[in-house]
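Troubleshooting: if your tokenizer reports a length mismatch, compare against these two reference records.
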Amino acid sequence: MNETLNVLKQHRSIRRFSGQPVEQTLVQEIVRCGQHAASSSHIQACTVIQISDPHLRDKVAHLAGDQEYIRSAGTFLVFCADLHRAARIGSRGNQAFVAGMTEHFIIATVDVSLFAQNCVTAAESMGLGTCYIGAVRNHPQEISDLLHLPEQVYPVFGLCIGYPDQNPDLKPRLPLSVVLKENSYDETKDAAEISQYDQQMAEYYRNRNASQKNSRWTQEIAALVGREARPHMRSFLERRGMNTR
């Protein structure tokens, strides 16, 4: 066991911050760590928008579910999948950009995810807390307009970073045997394992130090996949010139 493994396995989403600003030198170092994540073909298809203007951050927070921790975090970043930069480079080299390819869209989105997770690990290793904000996709066009995002760029998620003002319980994860398979997708024992995990999660929900509730993991997941999830995203991405073929 080493400190990196400890940091990774102690991840929790922080939704209450002290209000202390995060020093800009730390923000820059965190983003530098993000830049060292793996990148498909080294395209580096990620751009990070740091929102330092409190009025702009308030507008983004309002569009992203009015989650107060977006406003109170020491800093707030929006991670964007960016094919615009590559398109401009191609045009300078007299190479036409082939727009709308689903594979390019996947590459850029994966690049952003890897980049951001490096940032989270770096921040948490410094004693900072983090919380991803997928709700920037609630109103992606409005947020794109606020941030002046060009075509071939879309906001994937936000990230709150700050000094924690809470110590939430560590949420249990699925048994390793459910997610780590050998040679094939063998789910023979998954039902029994998930049933035991359900009991563990029910206990967690009942006894955690904030927002207790009577629920199970399978109940939460069934509700999640049983409803539409941001159906506006397809048409939004098409207007961005992405994911059309």
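Reference record two:
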Amino acid sequence: MKSFFLSLFFIFSFFANGQNLYIKTYGNEKNKTIIFIHGGPSGNATLFEGTTAQKLADLGFYVIAYDRRGEGRSSDPNAKFTYEEAFQDLNSIYATYHLKKAILLGHSFGGLVATLYTDKYPQNVSALVLAGALFSQQETYDHILNALKKKYNSNSEQLKKISIVENLDKNSAEYRKGCYELAGENGFFKMPNPTPESKKLYADYEAGDFYKTNIRNKNAPLVFYQNEKQNNIDSRPYLKKIKSAGVPIYGIYGKDDGIFSSAQINSMKAITGEKHFAFLDNCSHYLFVDQQAAFLSKLKYWLK
């Protein structure tokens, strides 16, 4: 109860400071801190909170979940959606919770935020965990489009849809949106054989309070591309630099996450090292739900 009211206090304190940052904590503040950084732009932490945050805390971690400025429950009409703005909000969390170091757990686009933050502030990060995290964006877009061209090699209507996206400006919000929409329509983000456990997690989430606050800011990607110059990057050089600086890097990915090629996965594994990499069977993009037990077990093994 005390931690609940403490979380509420910090939520309101962020609003009072004009940052409009939703934030909630789970577990004992004396334990190792994990900050979860959600996907996007336009995402939020509701799925992670509604399924996994408390279970991760139960393993002996102090888990902080938040929605980036202007995304999800962190309403802000003046948000810029830049990496630098995301860094400012992370630094505010460090200051508010008196954190010297924390583990950053970055999912999807949140992996890019976590990587670039760690590169800039390595002294603040005790470990970097990339969970289904983006890293070589153009390779991901190329892989999605090439996989679909192979799948629809004799379907002129589908090939026309793919061609329209392929010919867009590769540094535009429209190109990114087109690639991911095609991926979503073709099941790239879904596990092939949902388990009873994953079905229950998704069903409970959709029936619960967190799903009711699953707010998506459709303007976020557009504004991000207007304001952020680093909008189509390969973060592997940053990861190599981070590793050489002594910050441990861990990668956990689903074997059925359709947005990554095998070459990409192998390149990530080469950076993290085999002992710091997990490749989960029957698992797609939302691996903390698709294979939650394996996800939690790996994090506990690596980080405890």
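Descriptive notes for reference record two:
- Strands lie at 23-26, 32-37, 61-66, 102-107, 125-131, 249-254, 277-280.
- The mean pLDDT is 94.
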